[in-house]
Amino acid sequence: MMKKRWVATAGIVLATTTSSAVAAVGHEWWSGVRSYVGADAQVRRMDFKGGYGDNLLQHHSPQGNLYGGLKFTPTLGVEFGYEATTTRTRTATLTTGDISNGATISEMISPAVFKSKQKIKGPHVDLVGYYSFYEDSPFQLVGSIGAAVLKATFERKTLSLHGVPSTIVRKLSLHKTVLRLMGGLQYGLSENLGARFSLGWVNTSRMVIYATDGMPSPYTPAVKPKNSFVYGIGMLWTF
């Protein structure tokens, strides 16, 4: 009986000691985690495949990126953000033989004048790595790999066909999860305030955007982007 009591008491003491140690280690680990928020002004360079947006859409789009993150160690963290381009427009005149969203312009409707709109936006999550040149260096190399859930929306309004005014509007949209990579340089202006210069690559060539307006036509208009490059500069605040 005495032996059973001793074993029970020892078990309780061991469990209490272990849980206290784990809690202490967990508290110490979490106390070292730094959180931060930031904002970037960016420009997205996104070209398009021939006949599928290259002659109708803008290839540069200003955009903003708001983000927040947790830096678990001096070299590793995770970041969550949301990016969105401005709405860009372009008016283009296509003639016989040109291709508009996959359809060839015939002599019967040439010249065809179109006004197009475009926008890309969506959240992203990234695993971030940091490298300091030396201890307490204000400069850090930063790199990340992650995924973005982007919504691409496009609109093509036909202004005229062969000189005859038109009001036909086609709408195209798509949600797609794509790979994103980023590399850059961070500079600490103070203990909490920093600046970031970045270059990103986004696998937007996986996005093929078709018309979703349900309008009957002999073909389905499509936009086929190439991969994007995103150039950014911004500020971040560490808590």
Description:
The protein is mainly beta and 239 residues long. It folds into two domains: 1-31; 33-238, Porin, CATH 2.40.160.20. It is 13% helix and 60% strand. It contains one helix and 14 strands. It has an eight-stranded antiparallel β-barrel. Strand 2 (60-73) and strand 3 form a beta hairpin. The N and C termini lie far apart (56 Å). 22% of the residues are buried. Residues 6-29 have low confidence and may be disordered.
| Secondary-structure element pattern, one letter each | HEEEEEEEEEEEEEE
- Largest sheet, order of strands side by side? 1-2-3-7-8-10-11-14
> Got a strand count?
14
Q: What proportion of the residues form beta strands (DSSP E)?
A: over 45%
**Count of DSSP H/I helices:** 1
Helical percentage: 10-25%
CATH topology value of the largest domain: Porin
Summed up, the domain count is 2
Based on CA inertia axes, which overall geometry fits? elongated
